[in-house]
Amino acid sequence: MTTLELDVAVVGAGFGGMYAVHRLNELGFAVHAVEAASDVGGVWFWNRYPGARCDIESMEYSYSFSDELQQDWEWSQRYPTQPEMLAYAEHVAERFDLRRHISFDTRVVSATWDAPSRRWLIATDTDLRLSARFCVFATGGLSVPRVPEFPGLDDFAGDVLLTAHWPREPVGLTGKRVGVVGTGSSGIQVIPHLAQQAEHLTVFQRTPNFSISGANEPLTAEAVREIKANYPALREHARRSFGGSTIPINRVSALAVDEQERARTFEQRWHMGGFAFLAAFDDLTLDERANALAADFVRAKIRAAVDDPEVADLLTPRDHPIGSKRICVDTGYYETYNRPNVSLVDLRAEPLEAVTAAGVRVGGREIDLDVLVLATGFDAMTGALTRVQVCGRDGRLLRDEWADGARSYLGLMVEGFPNLFTISGPGSPSLLSNAILAIEQHVDWIGGCLAHLRDTGNVTIEATREAQDRWVAHVRSVADRTLYPRANSWYMGSNVPGKARVFLPYVGGVGGYRKKCDEIARNGYDGFVLAGADGRTPDA
Ligand code: NAP
Question: SS3 string of 3-64?
Answer without folding.
Answer: EEEEEEEEECCCHHHHHHHHHHHHCCCCEEEECCCCCCCCHHHHCCCCCCECCCCCCCCCCC
